[in-house]
Amino acid sequence: MSEEKNIPIENETTEEIKEETAEASEETAEEAAAEETAETETEPEEKKEETSDNKEESEAEKQLADMNAKYVRLMADFQNQKKRFEKEKADIYQFANEDIVKSLLEVIDNFERALDASQDDGSKFREGMEMIFKQLMGALEKAGVSEIKALGEEFDPNFHNAVMMEETDEFESNKVSGVMQKGYTLNSKVIRPSMVKVAK
Quick one: fold of 97-199? Predict the structure, then answer.
């Protein structure tokens, strides 16, 4: 009988497994390299998108800040304009009668001269004139008219109009020593300064 030869099956199987393993490793390496390349290519695109988004957000924030600044300026202008209108309106109410009051001041001057010139004899006529004068001055005071204090006061060019200087022992230097014509204010505004003499 002839002897049968044993075929090295195990060696062939091992080599096949090695080849398959090598091929699988190469495929895995190629896939990993492809994924890596894809990730590398995707990263710049993502960065571009992020940069673009940040730029848009920055521009939106800038526009919002500009709009807020414009709104604040408009509100400030509106408030200033409103205050100006209110002041002008108040001035109109306060000084609407200024021309009439100035005209009445001459009447008051003549009234006072007439009373000073008449004798204080207790007559009914003088009493009536005094009552009318007081009534007239009371109405003017309610309208905001006030007499400027002058005699014995420190000379103030804002309220007094000095027409002469005089030597006197009765008043200190730079004090008002005499009133030649009374001055008046309307709601704290000088409508006629006092005409005065000032002590040297």
Answer: Nucleotide Exchange Factor Grpe; Chain A, domain 2 (2.30.22)
